[in-house]
Design brief:
Strand content: 25-35%
Shape: globular
Radius of gyration: 26 Å
Number of strands: 10
Strand order of the largest sheet: 2-3-9-8-5-6-10
Number of helices: 5
Distance between the termini: 103 Å
Structural class: alpha+beta
Low-confidence stretches: 1-37
Mean pLDDT: 82
Number of domains: 1
Length: 271
Amino acid sequence: MKSYWQKIQLIATFQIALLGIIGYFPMIWMTPVAATPKTFSPPPPPPDRGAAGDRGGAASRGCSVGNQSAIALVPVYKQTLKQGQTEAVSVTKVWGLTTEEYPTFWFFVPYKKSTINSIEFVLKDESSKLSQTLYRTIVTIPETPGIISIPLSATTPSLQVDKMYHWFFKMKIICNPQQPAQREYAEGWVQRVNLNPKLVDSPAQETPQQRVRLYAENGIWYDALTTLAELRLAKPQDPTLAVEWMNLLKSVDLENLAKQPLIKCCQANGT
């Protein structure tokens, strides 16, 4: 009799445990998995020595926030190219794609307004032997350190498809009034391309956030960055946008700038 009740208790215990397991697994299966935000998929850089530049970011001389210098928010490619039969040359390429006729350029300015003497942006067409300046502007100095945008003026010639353009970002900093102004700069290249016709009318472009992912997945850096930055300016407290901003910058090794404020400026007086 005792063994009979022991069997009954064992069966009951097994059934309770089984019910617990069955009740547990649906909770696992139904737990939503957070979608991984898309990051930038870099296209192959220009061949040879095309697009050599410097996006900045070296250590400052001491009067900036966090001991940083100005830096352009743009991809960088490190390549080793052969020169002759044996010699190799290291080249840094600073280059990104856009589909826009008048793209927007983004820069991190780590200095207080009181230490900035001037900011200048220049865009050149260097496709021929004689370099042509298409746009030159003195940029309004931001009130506080942060990431600023410089849109290309619609009064300048629009960018042509498949053509490379050379841009320059120049700053004069006065850390010590008793000493000459320090010069900082970044330079790089932008190239306009046509978006794949199959993607032009894609449902993936229904919202700005979907367009960010579309641009990033197809290597269109300037458009992905500008669209996402404008979303963040409109919704600065949105945690999803903050994560996507971090991932986008991290994909080009600029994650250290992800928490820097976006500054709504800057007016430019172009020529």
